[in-house]
Amino acid sequence: MNDQNNLLAFKKFLKENNLDGFIVTNPTNIFYLTGFKGVLPAEREAILVFDPSPTLITARIYQNEAARVKSRNLKIKIVAERNQIFESSAKLFKKAKRIGFEENDLKVAELKEFKKVLKKVRLIATKNLIEDLRIIKTEDEVKRIEKAQIISQKAFNELIKTIKVGQTEVEIAEKLASIIKSLGANGLAFEGIVAAGRNAGLPHYVTGNSKVTKGDVLLFDFGAKYKDYCADLSRVVFIGHTDGRYHHIYQHVLNAQKMAIEIITSGIKVSNVYDAANDYFKKHNLDEYFLHGLGHGIGLDVHETPHLRSGLPTTNDQLLTNGMVFSVEPGLYFPWGGIRIEDLIVIKNGRAKVLGKLIDEIIEV
């Protein structure tokens, strides 16, 4: 990850979008462009402004962290207190007349404050300017995501040796988090899912205190974080002797995933990849149980562009290309539970490459 290259690329992006200034408030985007990481992402502890050259503004509590990212391409301004960050940032705009801001991150109250100070400036809401830069991963970024995914797979393989009837979902989740840390990850990339029995039929189930019983389907959705980059993995474990239809559904989900991965090439539409899996489910009268998109990009955030969907005009025509990293995660959901299998793909040399290993066999414990 080369922060200087990212800064220069974004400056070029601004010119292409007819902007001579910009306000970056999203902490992840600030980190991507500068390498600066605040301690509390939920609070405004740093703002990055372009006029058109970039200046990072943060409170003195972070002056040492800020000093580490200072360069000839990035100025640093330290203010005494956090509540002075916005006031100071507005004063830095001397040349800019058309200033962009992150529509999905800047708060209404913050925008009002900028409008008060920058009365002669046109403030322009933008969507995904920095996120669009983040779509294509460098080799270093891909290596970090792959390492996170391999750690996730190793952790899962260790965990299944410890699963017992009578354990709660929370107990299993805590054990999984401990294993992930022991394997060298920073921790979890997101709040994972451990769903037993009927709970596995809820795609975004919140892990609870349900106990694992014989005959259950046990669904996992989790990922490690390694050097700031996320993984995402979904697996299913069958507890003891299970209903044969569960295995039947598992095989269909596995087949749909394989079919989708096989057609992935640089230049293919995201909707075509989704349709490959959905059409397979249609052929077997299962498509009504496929309740979500086929996959999503991954990187510094667990959900990024591209999104493998169909039926959405804004995303259908997006083309997959070299350097994109994303999940392929078909799933089917029923009253008795659900099956989801998820792996990560990078497009390299025009073809799909799996990060880590795909799973073939049914896992029973």
How would you summarize this macromolecular structure in one to three sentences?
The chain has ten helices and 19 strands. α4 runs parallel beside α5. The longest helix has 21 residues.
Can you describe what's shown?
The protein is of the alpha+beta class. It folds into two domains: 3-134, Creatinase/prolidase N-terminal domain (Creatine Amidinohydrolase, Chain A, domain 1), CATH 3.40.350.10; 139-355, Creatinase/methionine aminopeptidase superfamily (Creatine Amidinohydrolase, Alpha-Beta Complex). It is 33% helix and 23% strand. It contains ten helices and 19 strands. The protein has helices at 3-16, 27-34, 63-69, 85-91, 108-117, 129-134, 139-159, 169-182, 244-263, 270-283; strands at 21-24, 46-50, 54-59, 75-79, 98-102, 122-126, 187-188, 193-196, 217-222, 224-226, 229-230, 233-238, 295-297, 304-308, 325-328, 331-334, 337-340, 343-348, 351-355. The strands form six sheets. Strands 4-3-2-1-5-6 form a six-stranded mixed beta sheet, sandwiched between helices. A three-stranded antiparallel beta sheet has the order 7-10-11. Strands 8-9-12 form a three-stranded antiparallel beta sheet, covered by helices on one side. β2 (46-50) and β3 (54-59) form a beta hairpin. α4 packs parallel to α5 (108-117), α7 crosses α8 (169-182) and α9 (244-263) packs antiparallel against α10. The longest helix has 21 residues, at 139-159. The radius of gyration is 23 Å and the shape is elongated.
